[in-house]
Amino acid sequence: MSAVPQIITYKINASAFYPRIYEGAVSVVNTLKGHQHQAFFVGGCMRDVLMGLRPKEIDIATSATPDQIKKLFKKVILVGEKFGVCIISVDGHDYHVSTFRQDVDYKDGRHPSKVLFSTSQQDAERRDFTINALFWEPVESKLYDYTGGLDDLHDGIIRAVGDPALRFQEDRLRILRCARFAAHLGYAIDKATYDAMIAIEDPMKGVSSERIRDEIDKMLKARNPSIAFELLYQVNTLQKIMPELCATKGVMQPVNYHPEGDVWTHTMLALDIAAKELQDRDQRSVLLWAILLHDIGKPPTIVHPKDPNDRIRFNGHDVEGERMTRQILERLRLPNKDVDAVCSLIRDHMRYGNAEQMRKGKLRSLMEREGELFQSHIDLNYFDVKASHGDLSNYEYLKGEYELYKEQKNFPKPIVDGRFLMEMGMRPSPKFTLIIDSAREAQLEGDFHDKTGAKKFVKNFISSLKE
After folding, report:
1. Beta bridge partners of 76
2. I need a surface site. Which of 205, 346, 357, 420 has the fewest CB within 10 A?
3. Taking the mean position of all CA atoms in its chain, how far away is CA 438?
4. What distances in angstroms separate CA 361 from CA 149, 411, 413, 434, one per listed residue?
């Protein structure tokens, strides 16, 4: 599709933006225009505003070069001078300001070898998708649409700018961005754009693990995450990123527990339910990664029924899932603390699925140990169940016990710790953790209340270990 460039008057009320962010952005534009430079709001902020969404940031494109920008503003950070990208700070808000450019000679599948400063139209024509290539001049209320983005936005279509094959060869990250936009916007993908994604060889060439991780994290927070993962599977990209997740397709489950279907279907359904019901999902990356990967250990642990009275089983899939998850997340360079938290959720998701059978002292000690992460254990149980058999009685029990735990702030301080055990004449050993944890559970259960009772418990517990 060859779009006819158009410049139209397009008034947008300032209330469509967050006031302080908008005011600062307009001041940047006014300063640039006051020195005979063009300047526009551009990219995702314009896409979102035209869809009726409030953008959280405003990016600006300009004819001014980085050297000229440095002379016009007090607080300027050059984050990509080679690419003409600066950050300008105004009243505590940062604005990405980029010089109009053409990208030349992509060699690594991700970055141009050279950029040339250019015109606004040439800048629009080097962008990824038409809906991200709209320029708006806020002072004169002029919308510059060089690529047909306005029509595509109204029609709900994601279309690569210009030649889609060339766009994806230039930068393979655009495949992930396309999937994310489809999941976030619910838009259809133009056929030529879709065909180009399928045809491209080595779809993640040149894309760093960190950028892949960041895009997946954004997909998990989209309106319909399953759309992104289904699309990446269809265009043979998810197989390169996360073959372990692809292996869940076609892995059937016991129908009594999982009437929804195979492991893949269950996982995608859980993600979509979380997208609709989780109010603070922008701050819940750990939980969302855990939902994505909680059953990753099922394919290698599947045991098929041996007789008509048996059922499909996945013995130890929680333990195997933790091991596989750690490999995946370390491969994608998640921060270590997030890796540990996600792995904790996956390792224990079956344990909390049977919370009603757990001693209350045990459950309370786990709440104490997990701290704020315990809420994510409860939430994972909820979305796991909602995407399967739907019996929320265990979840309601967990939720109720946790509320009670948080209300009762007068739990006794632990009596048994490492020093206590050494005072009993014991030498530090790997068994210390087991003894201390078991003693805390017993104390919270009310089995002992003082040091005398604690010593008796420890002696009996050690004796039981020797038997």
Report:
1. 88
2. 357
3. 36
4. 60, 11, 14, 15
Q: Which residues contact 405 (CB under 8 A, 6 or more apart)?
A: 364, 367
Alpha carbon 367 to chain centroid distance?
Answer: 25
Q: What does the alpha-carbon distance between residue 246 and residue 229 come to, in Å, rounded to a whole number?
A: 9
Residue 252 in any domain: the answer is: no
Q: With pLDDT > 90 as the criterion, what percentage of the chain qualifies?
A: 76
Element (H, E) at 376: helix 373-386
Max CA-CA distance within the chain? 87
Residue 292 identity: L
Residue 467 pLDDT exceeds 60: no
Whether 105 maps to a domain, the answer reads yes
Q: 445 or 341: which carries more pLDDT confidence?
A: 341
Using the Cα atoms of residue 257, residue 259, residue 262 and residue 268 in order, give the sign of their dihedral: negative
- Do residues 153 and 58 touch, judged by C-beta distance below 8 A? no
Tens of pLDDT, residues 339-351: 999 999 999 999 9
Residue 176 belongs to a domain: no
Is position 107 within any domain?
yes
Nearest-10 Cα torsion for 183, 189, 193, 196:
70
- 392 and 441 within one domain: no
Does residue 252 carry a pLDDT above 60? yes
CA angle 268, 270, 271 (to 5 degrees): 65
Q: How far is it, in rounded angstroms, from Cα 269 to Cα 275?
A: 10
Pairing of the two strands 188-189 and 157-158: parallel
pLDDT attached to residue 334: 97
- Residues contacting residue 265 through CB under 8 Å, at least 6 positions apart: none
Asked whether the whole model's pTM tops 0.85, one would answer: yes
**For the CA atoms of 438, 441, 446, 447, what is the dihedral angle to 10 degrees?**
-10
If you count them, how many residues does the chain have?
467
Alpha-carbon separation of residue 351 from 316, 391, 397 (angstroms): 11, 16, 14
d(CA 168, CA 110): 9
How far is residue 261 CA from its own chain's centroid?
25
| Amino acid code (one letter) for 78 | L
SS3 annotation, 334-346: CCHHHHHHHHHHH
Arithmetic mean of pLDDT over the chain: 92
